[in-house]
Description:
Elements: H1 7-13, H2 16-20, H3 22-34, H4 44-51, H5 61-80, H6 99-108, H7 114-133, H8 143-155, H9 160-179, H10 187-190, H11 209-220, H12 225-236, H13 240-244, E1 251-253, E2 258-262, E3 271-274, H14 277-287, H15 306-319, H16 331-344, H17 349-356, H18 361-368, H19 372-389, H20 403-414
Antiparallel strand pairs: 1-2, 2-3
Helix pairs in contact: 7-9, 11-12, 12-14, 12-15, 12-16, 16-17, 17-18
Amino acid sequence: xxxxxxxxxxxxxxxxxxxxxxxxxxxxxxxxxxxxxxxxxxxxxxxxxxxxxxxxxxxxxxxxxxxxxxxxxxxxxxxxxxxxxxxxxxxxxxxxxxxxxxxxxxxxxxxxxxxxxxxxxxxxxxxxxxxxxxxxxxxxxxxxxxxxxxxxxxxxxxxxxxxxxxxxxxxxxxxxxxxxxxxxxxxxxxxxxxxxxxxxxxxxxxxxxxxxxxxxxxxxxxxxxxxxxxxxxxxxxxxxxxxxxxxxxxxxxxxxxxxxxxxxxxxxxxxxxxxxxxxxxxxxxxxxxxxxxxxxxxxxxxxxxxxxxxxxxxxxxxxxxxxxxxxxxxxxxxxxxxxxxxxxxxxxxxxxxxxxxxxxxxxxxxxxxxxxxxxxxxxxxxxxxxxxxxxxxxxxxxxxxxxxxxxxxxxxxxxxxxxxxxxxxx
Length: 426
């Protein structure tokens, strides 16, 4: 790392965003020193060269994207103080979509969630970028023209779920064009259902019993409010986004028991989750933290804030070190553990589905229906039923049978042989 950062860099590192970008800032100035450049001499080409350092196939794509984003924030901060002669946000301007694509996206806005519209826009940009590079017209496409694109999506190493979303969203757009008679080839012929890759079916990963018990103890005895919030998440099966969106006054009463009002979450629906005494006590702990006039239950958290999610994940990582669990412990595994615990305790599939806020029972099955405890119990019951169904009656011992034959007879009977030995001739 450089021995001495310039004063603007040191000032940036004192900001909340700068504290998360410390490693990136040091790497950036080391890169400048190696090329004998100053910040004032930085050009867009230089900056693009620096960003290519984060496109390492060995690094997860999400991590690389976060590093590039932090680098842009720093250069944007320098540009705002007239220390850099270009705006890094100009480098991120995406190619404009054609009028038909913009009209299609506008038609989605009244009936789809903003995140869905963003996903469609991203898929169409990728689609048109590929078409423009080959001089193809979206309204004159043939199956032969489009097949190489499927191969390139696979060659990029995209996750099967990502590729599937891209293909489905492009097919929806092509259907929209076909309905307006703008296509020569049927949309479902261009992108077939068989073009979508098979999605991997991951098993739920609840914590082991020992790790779960130890983690709950650590979170309960912690002095950090974020640890109490994570323990509340473990007791109620919330998603981490729902935890950050909990309002300060989130407890309701139905006359018999307290209920937690979970706001709109991933599936855009609200629900009420019953609370036990421990969960109520955790909520009261979180409410007792000043200031009490805040809107959200978890201090320092707000919906859609990526830094708040990272803060909670960091607390979980600090409290889950050296736990007896073979897999990495993430916040969503707390939800898995809650769901499998409820199902193993005898709760119905419909009840668990409502607790988790699922709309389709198949989503609940993916989380809860294959826990080791449940499968083991059902397997033991099935074996007992089979043994009862196919149990053979014990044959009667014939009279006047020598002792040696009696011994052999009982040995065969206990082994389950249905053949009765013949009576020996006198």
